[in-house]
Amino acid sequence: MSIPAPPSGHTEPDPHAPAAYRFTDSAYVPLADKLSELRARIDGLDEQIVALLAQRAACAKDAARFKSSLAQVRAQARQQQVLDHVRELATQHNPGLDGFEDVVEQTYRTLVSGLVDAQGRLHPKLIPI
């Protein structure tokens, strides 16, 4: 079943209109009555997620102190361990969205890659003890 194209000139849904579809799962409980309510909730979640990412980045920064080489910064085995762990967490927390585990894994691949790169730029600036 395909989603019909919106009327000409309408590229965004009306955030204040009622839902246009429902799920076939009779046990599904909607999270909001309007898209605008969901967007506000998403904005609040984004604030929390970014704050948590900042905490994670601070831990990654501090971890650089324990690594004696750029090879240790890259730590391929540890990266895979993190990806396996978050994929398992995604399975546990899947809200019923096909491909959720893939979304979480790809998100973490990007996150870990960025933090490893940042740690790699930071590492040469550290002073040995």
Quick overview of this protein structure:
The chain is mainly α and 129 residues long. It contains four helices and no strands.
List strands and helices in order, with pairings.
Blueprint: H1 35-63, H2 70-74, H3 76-93, H4 100-122
Written overview of the protein:
The chain has helices at 35-63, 70-74, 76-93, 100-122. The protein has 129 residues and is mainly α. The protein has one domain (35-125): Chorismate mutase (Chorismate Mutase Domain, subunit A, Up-down Bundle). Helix 3 (76-93) runs antiparallel to helix 4 (100-122). It is elongated and about 65 Å long.
Radius of gyration: 21 Å
Q: Provide the domain count.
A: 1
Mean pLDDT: 94
What would CATH call the class? Mainly Alpha
Given helix and strand content, the structural type is mainly alpha
In angstroms, what separates the terminal alpha carbons?
A: 64 Å
Shape: elongated
